[in-house]
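Field: sequence (string)
Field: structure_tokens (string)

Example rows 1 and 2, in order.
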Amino acid sequence: MPLILTNRQITTILHTLSSAELTRFTAALTAAFVALSTQPASVQQPLRTSLTTANGGTSLCMPAAFDGVTAIKTVALGPGHPPRGTLTLYSSATGELEAMLNAEEITGFRTALASLLLLQRRHATPGLEVRRVAVFGTGKQAEWAVRLLLKMFPGVGVTVVGRGTSGEVLQKLPAALGFECCVIGRAEDGSEEELEVLLAEVDAVFCCTPSCEPLFPMQWLRIEERPVYVSLIGSYKAHMVEVAPELLKATGVTVVVDSAKACLSEAGEVIQAGLDASQLVEIGAIFNTGAAAVVEGSCIFKCVGLGVMDLATGREITRIARDRGVGVNVDNFDG
């Protein structure tokens, strides 16, 4: 019978994942990425449908079918309001509804986790260890990047970069996170100089904002001196960019994407850099080459978000919820 899960129930599940449960999520996302790159016929996933409402809001619909499951996620972004949405899972064989999930936490969680898959492999490679990370943003995407960084990389130093004063930035982050970080308020005196020093020292940068202009000068990363990992997960439209498009064309930089087709249609940095499919490497293709495959040198991971990511994540959440006895089972839903 269908299982209904609220935002609070899903949040509790994701905040209390065991190491074994988190490993199941990473395995599910990896399998979905590999299938998308190596067996594209096994994944039915049209590009997302977007519409603009009369009040300037945006509504998105992201369908996908893979491994016996059909998933449809809908998201509504009203002006001045946080994103809200639902994820429904169906049996591809019978069409029966299997689960309906609140999607508020799912998007941030699955995107952040996807962006950490490559970094996890780099961390296990001598010379590419992750010791310090900068996270731009104070919203849900940034929150999940911080949560998962601290869970998957014990001892890593995290610096959150946000607009306003340090106090204002700290107010936007859940106090329950329980991590220590040096927050840089970009409106404070000397903050740009402090940010430049920070970016010259970090091993990875996570950009989690819907920005329409670069968040920092690309020279501050000093990629000609050392390998840096940059994750771009906040921008999702052609006019949005979190870094200078020129960074994607810099010597020695490998651009990895969740989907070449999707990024060539939706990723502002990729589009404005004038890249084509031959200059992009899908993450699934990397994982398909072996468990030890890693991108050496500087790497940019661009993720616009895919329906199959929601499918894989939603299915694992549903399995864990059933194991824990969480949620409401609806009897005779089709009756």
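Row 2 begins here:
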Amino acid sequence: MFVKFEELKSVIKKALLNAGLSEEQAEICSEVHAQSSRDGVESHGLNRVPRFIDYVNKGWVDLNSEMELVNARGFMEHYDGGLGIGIVNAKKASKRAVELAKEHGLGLVTLSNTTHWMRGGTYAWDTVEDGFIGINWTNTESSMPVWGSKKPTIGNNPICIAVPYKDRPFVLDMAISQYSYGKLEVTRLAGKELPYPGGFDKDGNLTSVPGDIEESLRILPIGYWKGSGFAIALDLMASILSKGRTAADMDREGKGSCTGCSQVFIAIDPYVFSTKEETEKIAEGLINQVKNAERIDPNKEITYPGEGVLARRKKALTEGVHVDDSVWEEVKKL
């Protein structure tokens, strides 16, 4: 079914207020959840609200906590998230990175002891819409087997990279698994299979059936062993720079998805060494080559990361935001 964006946001906000969030917290979080569904990332939009409220009820998210500055050195700052609301913490951290970049040309903020930020692309879009290159990532509890193993031992550690380009920025938002567990859930709820194999079933066979991957917990890393190595690198950098938890630490504590995680937010001024016109000309050369590449399917346009989001956003604001019927009814009752 499809609902208007404002109605979606209103229903989510009501559920969050009922869960004990303040007016300001509920406004920020409902906006982000609704925007995620609007942009086609349903798994971290409406669908994630019941789990977030469950974590609040379990005491895994501290509604009274605010992130605090721990240390600062030049363009780098480190904050403790105090197990506060992940969206609120990440919004503040990414904004602070931009402020540092305005002063130094580059801003780097690390955040330890925080909670799930929902859609990581939210903060990359915020940064690029402020005119800066954005890079942000988070570690997670173990959700993917390290290459050559059978059981989850590393996180799928989503990373986002955004680069300004006219009114159509490049925004890459991806997990280090071929598909996130959220994407598996959305595909399963829709009664569909994945377009490409996304993991192994319990018998060790590659499969496109999302439920079989969810059962085995053997999600496939991007690039096979390369993605596995990249996931480890992202975890090490996030946890070391923030003096925070690794996947191994979160596994031992066992408090669900991303509770106590470590995050990094980087903002870079793209015009430090060149003008806006020069940077756009540089980007245009590559983007034109990408857009004009010979198509496998003549009827299917080639797009770069970010274009699809803008198209889905435009469509959702005129035709309504797609929501899963059962999830919609569940959230309305919260």
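free_text_note (row 2): The longest helix spans residues 86-104.
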